[in-house]
């Protein structure tokens, strides 16, 4: 899927959301005004003019209704200011420990970590809704830095590894496409326009509790009056309910179809997500939730949380989603899926059994077999899958966006994973030494691991860095850093960023004061050497950006509005840094830089300039400037950087790491072309 086109689509959804919300508010204010005027208004007098007091009454009534809606929405949005984890906990999600021994939870963590590494994002917080037997999941947060993935217990009980991976890939598409921030806004706005319904319900219940034996006629009269008012407000609140459900459906349906297509492109096969949808169709309860506030999060779930009519449904019909993935599938085959579920437990090797159970007599192509880990499986089958999956995904995307503009081939390449992306990510994950992965699981050891990654290989510099660490955290931490550095010394450069990604959840759980001390100390350790090493710069910038956004999720930047020419100097500098550090000599660097400039500003003439000594501070300012670009301009920047990186036909670990940091700074996914070239 084209990430930048998706961002533009989210922006369009935001405008539609605001419009529908405004219509709902106007309708509710008008309805309340009519009721108040009818009940408390004065009769007309003199030449048919309304009594002057009616204008005052209507003004105050409108202001009060607007205030109730506005403050309710702001209250709900503020209650979710902690980001994804706040949403997950609001529906009963329980965090999954990094060191869990539960096989189901361990599998869930492995799949999510694998997808995070493949997509170039920090590992999100992971939650499970333990009391939910249905198959469902959602992603929530303001940005990738505070994202949370939450799945139901039913997903763990019923889905195979490939199916779970398909569901998680679907949710990661929402993470990368900017849907999560819109989802949280929608939760707040829905709470606001439905608040009148809540108030009316409370007044109605209070009035209905009048005792027939109550001798206090005055109290009974007040309760009856409250019942009448509550019933009226409840009726008016139904307008908010109507608009709220329509808003959810209007915003969510198309995004869910596109997320299905994105999951196919992520996983390079259709059997995973299609298998999950089939199981939703046959398990008792399907994807429905039991939690009381399930309707509040209906628009962000993988499947419908309740039985909705066609107007209120937040997802396309289940069979339509399945047939979009597998056009040859028929509803009668669901009985075979159900039988196979009873016969075979849901482990990582049951996919073949399910596929054979759903086989038909015709020779239509079935869902593609899952890719195996490197070195396993039938090469011919893998080649067939790799060749066919993009075609199926493109068909899904075309079906979901038939009315949208056609996406260019270049843009599609920016976000579409290469064959083996997940397998490569899994191999990287398994290549990290156990001592380092264990250290990444706990806050204090993750802190020491982060500092160890920034330690210099030169003895004199390392001694000064050790003193800085000891002064900031004490001798115990400094000793742990030294021990981890010995393990990290032989770590390939390509594993540094995956290790940082795995450490991110533990680092986020540090107290804010200690986290700030870590960031300050990390900067000091990196700058012990006046000529800051590029790898250390990337480490420090990536952690600072992600961790500060995680501390204050609501402050995560939104899409900018600037056009590319306004950031010309920043583009020149960023491309120059990538060209210099990705080339062996000055001539190669100039050639790579000119290719990037021709991609960004076709036909323009530029003069090569060497990097300043303090390029790090200049690069920080340039990246902050480029983050304010509109999505289409960011796309051009990323393509320009890819031109520079691929100028010599080789992607080095340094180039890959630098591009990962630049993409994170621009709040874009890492293009798969940035994967390190094979030696």
Automatic annotation (TrEMBL):
Highest taxon of source: Bacteria
Residue ranges of the TM segments: 16-37, 57-75, 186-204, 224-243
Keywords of the record: Cell membrane, Hydrolase, Membrane, Metal-binding, Metalloprotease, Protease, Transmembrane, Transmembrane helix, Zinc
Gene3D superfamilies the UniProt entry points to: Metalloproteases ('zincins'), catalytic domain
Pfam families: Peptidase_M48 (PF01435)
Region spans: Disordered: 340-378
Cofactor section: Zn(2+)
InterPro entries linked: HtpX_protease, Peptidase_M48, TerB-like
All copies of domain Peptidase M48, residue ranges: 108-327
CDD domains per the UniProt record, alphabetical: M48B_Htpx_like (cd07340)
Low complexity bias spans: 347-359
Entry annotated with the keyword Aminoacyl-tRNA synthetase: no
PANTHER family found in the cross-reference section: PROTEASE HTPX (PTHR43221), PROTEASE HTPX HOMOLOG (PTHR43221:SF2)
Name of the protein described by the UniProt record: M48 family metallopeptidase
Natural source organism: Dyella lipolytica
């Amino acid at each position: 899927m084209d990430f930048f086109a998706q961002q533009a689509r989210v922006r369009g959804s935001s405008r539609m959301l605001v419009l529908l919300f405004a219509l709902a508010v106007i309708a509710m204010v008008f309805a309340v005004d009519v009721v108040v005027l009818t009940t408390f208004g004065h009769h007309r007098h003199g030449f048919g003019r309304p009594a002057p007091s009616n204008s005052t009454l209507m003004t105050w009534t409108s202001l009060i209704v607007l205030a109730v809606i506005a403050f309710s929405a702001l209250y709900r949005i503020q209650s979710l200011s902690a980001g994804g984890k706040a949403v997950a906990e609001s529906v009963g999600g329980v965090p999954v420990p990094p060191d869990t021994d539960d096989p189901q939870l361990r599998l869930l963590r492995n799949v999510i970590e694998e997808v995070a590494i493949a997509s170039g994002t920090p590992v999100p917080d992971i939650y499970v809704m333990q009391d939910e037997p249905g198959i469902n999941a959602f992603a929530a947060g303001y940005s990738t830095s505070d994202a949370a993935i939450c799945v139901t217990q039913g997903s763990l009980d019923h889905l195979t590894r490939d199916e779970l991976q398909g569901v998680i890939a679907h949710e990661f598409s929402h993470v990368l496409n900017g849907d999560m921030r819109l989802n949280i806004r929608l939760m707040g706005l829905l709470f606001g326009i439905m608040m009148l319904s809540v108030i009316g319900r409370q007044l109605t219940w209070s009035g209905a509790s009048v005792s027939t034996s109550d001798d206090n006629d005055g109290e009974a009269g007040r309760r009856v009056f409250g019942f009448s008012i509550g019933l009226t407000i409840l009726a008016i609140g139904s307008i908010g309910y109507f608009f709220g459900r329509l808003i959810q459906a209007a915003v969510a349906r198309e995004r869910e179809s596109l997320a299905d297509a994105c999951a196919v492109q992520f996983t390079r096969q259709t059997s995973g997500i299609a298998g999950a949808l089939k199981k939703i169709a046959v398990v008792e309860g399907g994807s429905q939730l039991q939690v009381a506030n399930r309707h509040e999060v209906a628009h962000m779930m993988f499947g419908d949380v309740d039985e909705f009519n066609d107007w209120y449904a937040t997802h396309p019909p289940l069979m339509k989603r399945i047939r979009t993935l597998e056009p040859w599938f028929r509803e009668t085959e669901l009985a075979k899926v159900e039988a196979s579920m009873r016969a075979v437990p849901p482990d990582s090797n049951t996919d073949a059994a399910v596929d054979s159970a759903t086989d038909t007599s015709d020779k239509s192509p079935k869902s593609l077999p899952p890719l195996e880990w490197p070195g396993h499986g039938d090469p011919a089958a893998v080649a067939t899958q790799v060749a066919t999956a993009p075609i199926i995904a493109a068909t899904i995307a075309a079906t979901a966006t038939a009315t949208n503009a056609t996406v260019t081939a270049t843009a599609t390449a920016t976000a579409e994973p290469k064959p083996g992306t997940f397998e490569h990510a899994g191999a990287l994950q398994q290549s990290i030494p156990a001592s380092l992965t264990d250290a990444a699981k706990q806050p204090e050891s993750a802190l020491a691991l982060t500092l160890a990654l920034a330690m210099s290989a030169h003895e004199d510099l390392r001694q000064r860095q050790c003193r800085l660490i000891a002064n900031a955290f004490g001798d115990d931490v400094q000793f742990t850093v030294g021990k981890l550095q010995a393990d990290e010394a032989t770590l390939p450069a390509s594993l540094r960023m995956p290790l940082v990604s795995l450490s991110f959840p533990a680092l986020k759980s540090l107290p804010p004061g200690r986290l700030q001390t870590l960031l300050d100390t990390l900067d000091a350790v990196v700058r012990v050497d006046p000529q800051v090493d590029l790898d250390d710069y990337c480490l420090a910038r990536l952690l600072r950006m992600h961790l500060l956004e995680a501390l204050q999720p609501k402050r995560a930047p939104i899409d900018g509005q600037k056009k590319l020419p306004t950031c010309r100097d920043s583009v020149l500098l960023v491309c120059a840094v990538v060209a210099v550090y990705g080339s062996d000599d000055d001539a190669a660097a100039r050639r790579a830089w000119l290719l990037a400039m021709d991609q960004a500003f076709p036909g323009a003439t530029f003069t090569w300039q060497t990097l300043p000594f303090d390029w790090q501070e200049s690069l920080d300012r340039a990246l902050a400037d480029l983050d304010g670009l509109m999505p289409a301009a960011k796309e051009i920047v990323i393509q320009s950087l890819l031109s520079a990186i691929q100028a010599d036909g080789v992607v080095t670990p340094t180039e890959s790491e630098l591009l990962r940091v630049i993409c994170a700074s621009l709040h874009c996914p890492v293009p798969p072309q940035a994967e390190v070239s094979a030696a």
